[in-house]
Amino acid sequence: xxxxxxxxxxxxxxxxxxxxxxxxxALTLQDDLTTAIVAHGARGVLIDISALDVVDSFIxxxxxxxxxxxxxxxxxxxxxxxxxxxxxxxxxxxxxxRHVRTALNVEQGMRRxxxxxxxxxA
Amino acid sequence: xxxxPDTLPIHSEDDVVxxxxxxxxxxxxxxxxxxxxxxxVTAASELARNTLIHGGGxxxxxxxxxxxxxxxxxxxEDRGPGIPDVERAFQDGxxxxxxxGLGLGGSRRLVNDFSVESTPxxxxxxxxxxxx
Lengths: 122, 132
Ligand SMILES: Nc1ncnc2c1ncn2[C@@H]1O[C@H](COP(=O)(O)OP(=O)(O)OP(=O)(O)O)[C@@H](O)[C@H]1O
Ligand SMILES: [Mg+2]
Fold this sequence. Notes:
The structure holds two protein chains of two kinds.
Chain A: E1 6-9, E2 12-16, H1 23-40, E3 44-48, H2 57-72, E4 76-80, H3 84-93, E5 100-103, H4 106-118
Parallel strand pairs in A: 2-3, 3-4, 4-5
Antiparallel strand pairs in A: 1-2
Helix pairs in contact in A: 1-2
Chain B: E1 6-10, H1 13-29, H2 34-53, E2 58-65, E3 71-78, H3 86-90, H4 103-110, E4 113-119, E5 123-131
Antiparallel strand pairs in B: 1-2, 2-3, 3-5, 4-5
Bound molecules: adenosine-5'-triphosphate (ATP) and magnesium ion.
Residues 46, 50-51, 54-55, 78, 80-83, 89, 94-97, 99-105, 124 of chain B line the site of adenosine-5'-triphosphate (ATP).
């Protein structure tokens, strides 16, 4: 079965979405990620969506769910690289996210995730 | 004058992806801005999924328009159970499935003209048009 690879980087998981996902593939990613968080004791999840030129309500909901589920498993989710046209469209569509932090690119996202995981309150 | 439309079947999730790609191609050809291409493809994705999930499958037509202006019209048809209360279906948050209930209302916001004609059990047709 087709799957999106999940990379382990210390206590972080990194996912780069490079294909236009059909719905089942997005749900598989959601399951795989929640399983991987527990299996590796990950504290942060970084999802790079810079290659996605469409995020509709389904993919939007799956990304939001991943963040909420991660939060329950005490990991933080950072979604990085959203294209400006995608951001404009998501807002007009009406998709809103809770528990999702965003950054402009992988470096910035990684830095912020590290800072909040290693910060004074960690 | 209107070019012959592309007609695409919608019977699987992969077909929904193919509809997205066909709409992207047509929107690029017609010279839509990147933001408008994204809005069109997103609306197409929502409506194609509705055709598949709620309509039990059907087809999409992608029509390139020349008159009165250049534009792209997307027509989705199915012969499923239909939408008995169209106004209600448009409301954000209204869903008979497990969705967010954003597809119909949201895609209406992403285009210029939008219509739903539904005769339950006979034909449901959703038409979305964006002008250049
Ligand atoms: N082609 C269709 N045939 C029958 N009913 C439809 C069709 N399209 C939409 N509907 C009805 O309209 C409701 C609202 O559709 P909408 O796309 O807004 O939300 P959803 O599909 O339930 O959730 P979402 O799209 O956010 O995942 C649906 O729950 C369904 O009852
Ligand atoms: Mg829908």
